[in-house]
Amino acid sequence: MCHAFLTDARFYQFLFRIDQSIAEEVQAAGCRCGGVLHSACYPRKPRGFRSVLDKSYEYRLSFCCATEGCRRRTTPPSVRFLGRKVYLGVLVVLISALEGGVSPTRRRQLVDTLDVPAQTLWRWQQWWREVFAEGPWWRMERAQFIPPIAAKGLPGELLARLGGADLSERLVRLLGLIAPVTSTSRSSSLTVRTDPQNL
Question: Which of the 8 DSSP states describes residue 149?
């Protein structure tokens, strides 16, 4: 991977700050029952560029209602993690976007460098084309793009259409755009604001 930002710890700290901002907003809104939300983070061991990640990547921000009898868990959307996927969201997006135009040799290098099995790459492509593309959130959002983005073009074409001075800015915008699909508890009620200029 020739993009320097991928091995820059500041990039991942910036993504964590976005997640913190989202989590603060979700916590301030409280539980649907009206209760207070207390921290109940999930432990995570994301695969990818582990050497540049700090301790903030050892957990996913989440909350649990303090009201006895409710105790509902609320997990905010995330720009760091794509649901339960064990690889960093950045890698899932970027490698999936590159997959369509990568030579077999470069593909093998990606698999070896990032220790991403070929079967995992295939599953990511299936997720973009079948789960993501057919999900209710994307069915509503895709109307914003003219001409439409075909399922087989995801996420590469989506990444190419987003504005930004460079790949890192477009990637942050894409992660913010798709963040609502990373949580089932607060998926459609929150718009994630990202400002890549603060990178």
Answer: P
